[in-house]
Fold:
Amino acid sequence: MIRIENLHKRFGDVRAVDGVSFGAADGQVTGLLGPNGAGKTTTLRMLYTLMLPDEGQILVDGIDAVVDPQGARFAMGVLPDQSGLYPRLTAREHIEYFGELQGVTGADLRSRTDQLLTMLDMTAIADRRVAGFSHGERTKTALARAIVHNPKNVLLDEPTNGLDVMSTRAVREIIRRLKEEGHTVLFSSHVMQEVSALCDTIVVIARGRIVGSGSSDDLRLQTGQENLEDAFVALTGFEAAGMPS
Amino acid sequence: MIVVVRKELRDWSRDGRSIITVLISSLLAPGLIFFLFNNMAERQRSVEDVTIPVVGAANAPAFVDWLRQQAGVIVTEGPTDAEEAVRTRREDAIVVIPQDFVKNFSASKPAQIRLVADSSSQNSRPKVQRVRGLLQRYNAEIGSLRLIARGISPAVATAVQIEDIEVSSSQQRAAQILGFIPLFVMISAFTGAMAISTDSTAGERERGSFEALLVNPAPRIAIAAGKWLAGSLTGMLTVLITAGLLFAMFKQLPLQDLGIRFRLGTPELIRTLSVVLPLCPLIVAIQMYVATFAKSFKEAQSYLSFLMMAQMVPGMMATMNIMSTKAWMYYVPWIGQQTLLSDVLGNKPISPVVFLIVAVINLTVAVAVLRGTSGLLHREKIIFGR
Structure:
């Protein structure tokens, strides 16, 4: 469970995040929807403790992430904005390395790694070096290493960005599965269809502020628009819908 | 921490290019020294045993007999075209005796002997000098005999006596090259560790993998320490290889031909290693600290090459004897190792306490720098700045 209260972060004169509050419940998928530059990544970075907020509170399963970042990190699995891989290691070694860093070892680690590789349909490429991987294969590797320790809270920053249809489906499948298993899933996206297809709750963010939240029905009702895209446009105040990626 | 060490070492062991760099750099120094020494010894020997081709030996049998009696001299029949033979470098120096030699010699007139040589050829110079010296000695001997025959002391004919005091002997040149050994060993520590120091810091930034790595609950200091340990291990490995090769090579070198009384055995090897190995962790710590500021691998490498130059300055100065050894030098990292190593190779007695103190100082500074690096990993600009 994640709870964010009145989060602020500024870079120089730019208020990147300006009073953001929202929650993400267990067993639910929460989508952070917003155009590029809205403050999604900055919000997530503060949430996964690599950035210090200027103001505000972050609670991850009741742990204050600002006071005890170490403890909060134990409760999270993160696919960050920059998910670089080590070209000379294989997919399996990536997953095992992060597992060991999270404290998963021995037979547990091996079975969990195999499970993830099967789930993401990666068994054929598991022992190849990632240097030759496609974008989809890289993202799947990064996703697998992020959730190798079976974290209660899963944070994904634009997980399907730039993926082909097959990889997108694999990622969506994982998100559904995590939800069924009772995890808290929070992911950011600027793609409408993605969010509406997966999320129980949608949080719309623009210019560092929350401009709307609720289920997609709630949002339509709130804005009086027939479809989500129009609702999104109305909320963010942008002329063109479906911002360019 | 061990997890990080294992990953970095595995990553490194698959990086063919950096391993080849390490191998080449550790082979380079011993190879270079081996070549230089062999070359010098070769030249020294070739001067001592000189073969002199003589054209027209029949024109001055007495002179040729005298030549043959000199130690280390072998007289051979010279080629018909002496000048051509020297020009094409088939011979270094040829003595040509003209037909009128005996006539002038008997009449006590200056009898000509031609020495054909090529002064533009560096290699033949010592040999030509040797032959010229022999000729001059013959000249002096005969001249003295003639003066004595006429009842005059040969000393009268010697107005000035030149005494050669050679300061730059080949022994000294050899000693100079030996002085570079500490530098070579220490540079190998630097190059050996460089791959991991840059790849695990600037490399992580360039690939954008820092963010994912630091999201893990492992403390930053453990992550930094793991990378540091892995780097130190490769640095030490390189030092071991380089020093081992250097010492193995010294067993093969014809040092006695150069008249060098120089002993490099297992005790010297152990002392050298006990000086340089504790330096490796410090080098790696500094390299990592500097490389963490770099956004890319290339940027890091250019920073580090500056660092390497800076590190070489005191070594160079010590080698060229600009600085004399002072007590404080032992306790300054890098300079201390340099000074200690010269002492080890110069067979000066050193107390083991000094080794210990130097090692402790190095490790302390290394840990301090490592803490600094770990602190850098908290900076948002470092984590996210690409």
Observations:
- The radius of gyration of chain B is 31 Å.
- Chain B has a mean pLDDT of 82.
